[in-house]
Specification:
single chain, 38 residues, mainly alpha, 0% strand
Length: 38
């Protein structure tokens, strides 16, 4: 089941989307922290 999920395009798309969202959240957080520190 795990291998199937990894191969399916929907799973890949979901992984890519979640990775992009988490990356943007981290970038926003660092920007906010920098703004507060400055």
């Amino acid at each position: 089941m795990d291998g199937l999920r990894r191969v399916s395009p929907v799973g890949l798309r979901f992984q890519n989307l979640s990775a992009r969202v988490s990356g943007s959240i981290v970038g926003l957080r660092s920007k906010v922290v920098r703004g507060i520190l400055m």
